[in-house]
Design goal:
Blueprint (H helix, E strand, L loop, with lengths): L5 E6 L3 H13 L5 E7 L3 E3 L4 H5 L9 E3 H4 L3 E5 L1 E6 L4 E6 L4 E6 L2 E4 L3 E3 L7 H4 E3 L3 H18 L12 E5 L3 H17 L12 E5 L11 H13 L2 E4 L4 E4 L3 E4 L4 E3 L2 E4 L3 E3 L10 E2 L2 E3 L12 E3 L4 E2 L13 H19 L13 E5 L5 E5 L2 E5 H14 L3 H16 L29 H4 L2
Parallel strand pairs: 1-2, 1-9, 2-5, 9-22, 11-18, 12-13, 12-18, 13-14, 21-23
Antiparallel strand pairs: 3-4, 6-7, 7-8, 10-19, 15-16, 16-17, 20-21, 24-25, 25-26
Helix pairs in contact: 1-8
């Protein structure tokens, strides 16, 4: 290796980016390379448990890990990527309170920017729908659910159409786990709102295909629909959202669902910054070879949701899942080290181990090594496997304690509001005006 440390720049702090940095730290000595990771937040979010934050199953801080705790020899830069110049080998960032611009040069670049929510231009969706991609999304959804319950508890809101209706759009893993967790959360909360008629509560899952969770096959998808239906969730399949307003959701077949809360999980797209790159793209994702290298740009690698990674066995792309991103990150890290040391690089070789989903009330569905599981066993597998994958022993213990306490106590229904408290500024020589009576205010 050269005397001058190589500059390794990683864009994105999701599964791919963080695990690439962790693996590089293990493989490289302290003076071999300068590793820098750029991310919008200063933490790593364990997204498989995001719906549990929305449903108050785990504390909001227990599924996030500070990047500086995970990465001891990596420089962490919190900011937004403003531009990538592959020819000049540099990246432009925006960061700080004043949106300061900063340029970072690199010798090796790992692009792991993930994906963002796509509303596909549907009328009213961006203005009125919530998403489930970030920690803030989960907290916002939880607050909206509790706010709806508080409002519905008032007599004046008794006839408000759709106030206690939640529509989740998208029957994939995110949509199914969200509607299942939200349904359990709200129905358990009703015991603390005796003035609310349970018949007013309506939970709806809208899916464009014939069966939910198509990745797990029709048998487990049908089982999921049956279980959700038993628990009061209305599953609408073969339907697409046409328009969303502040009062309702309109489907393509003409049906209208009065609803004040809509959660969109039906579509994602690669980071829009990638569209400007001069490398090969496939529907906005970077095309890489089976070593995860970007053709025509030595030292540039891409992985995760923002890359099209071919399976050398079949020629088809690998699915953009977390388990693939983890293995892709390790392959990229090893190939970067091999490149720096003048050794041959290896191709990415991995087959899907399994996929799991929690569908509420200690029930789950899973397909592992081609074998289907359902019910309590699948739910236990879901918790066991994901608890094992959660970074840091401290976080594993905290989540395990959350789950244990959830067996003994009711869920917490406190809203986490971030608005500033009431203030006033009165000159010292002036007395405050007397408060008006209720009679005066009502005039």
């Amino acid at each position: 290796m050269s005397a001058q440390p190589s500059r390794i720049l990683i864009l994105g702090g999701g599964f791919g980016g963080v695990h690439a940095a962790m693996c590089l730290e293990r493989l490289l000595g302290a003076g071999d390379a300068e590793i820098t990771l750029v991310n919008q937040e200063n933490f790593f979010l364990f997204t498989p448990m995001l719906h549990e934050v929305a449903a108050s199953d785990v504390d909001i801080t227990h599924i996030v890990s500070p990047l500086r705790s995970l990465l001891r020899r990596t420089r962490v830069v919190v900011g937004d990527v403003a531009g990538i110049d592959l020819r000049e080998r540099r990246v432009c960032l925006r960061h700080g309170f004043e949106n300061h611009r900063h340029v970072l040069a690199y010798d090796q670049l790992v692009i792991a920017l993930g994906s963002i929510t796509n509303f596909y231009g549907l009328p009213g969706l961006e203005e009125h729908a919530l998403t489930m991609k970030t920690l803030g999304d989960a907290i916002h959804l939880r607050n909206r659910l509790i706010a709806s319950l508080e409002e519905a508890d008032n007599d004046c809101a008794a006839e408000t159409a759709g106030l206690l209706t939640c529509v989740v759009v998208g029957g994939g893993f995110a949509g199914v786990e969200t509607i299942a967790a939200v349904n359990d959360f709200v129905r358990e909360a009703l015991r603390f709102y005796p003035r609310i008629d349970p018949a007013r509560l309506r939970m709806v899952l809208v899916h464009a295909g014939p069966v939910v969770l198509p990745e797990l096959g029709s048998a487990l998808g049908s089982y999921t629909q049956h279980k959700l239906g038993e628990r009061g969730v209305e599953v609408i399949v073969n339907a697409q959202v046409q328009r969303v307003t502040a009062q309702d959701v309109r489907l393509g077949d003409g049906r209208t669902i009065p609803a004040r809360l809509v959660v969109w999980t039906a579509g994602t797209s690669p980071h829009p910054l990638l569209h400007a790159l001069p490398c090969g793209l496939d529907r906005g994702r970077i095309v890489v070879d089976d070593t995860l290298a970007v053709a025509g740009f030595p030292g540039v690698w891409a992985l995760g949701d923002c890359a099209v990674v071919p399976d050398w066995r079949t020629g088809r792309p690998h699915p953009p899942t977390a388990q693939h991103a983890l293995r892709e990150a390790r392959t990229v890290a090893r190939n970067i080290v091999a490149t720096l040391r003048g050794r041959p690089i290896a191709r990415f070789d991995f087959r899907t181990i399994g996929q799991l989903a929690a569908i509420g009330r200690r029930t789950g569905v899973a397909r592992i090594f081609g074998v289907n599981f359902s019910g309590f066993l699948a739910w236990w597998l879901w918790r066991t496997i994901y608890l094992g994958k959660l970074p840091r022993f401290e976080k594993k213990v905290r989540v395990a304690l959350d789950w244990t306490l959830d067996l003994l106590f009711t869920k917490d229904f406190v809203q986490f509001l971030t608005v500033r408290g009431s203030v006033m500024s009165t000159p010292a020589d002036l007395e405050p005006q007397p408060a008006r009576s209720l009679t005066e205010m009502s005039r």
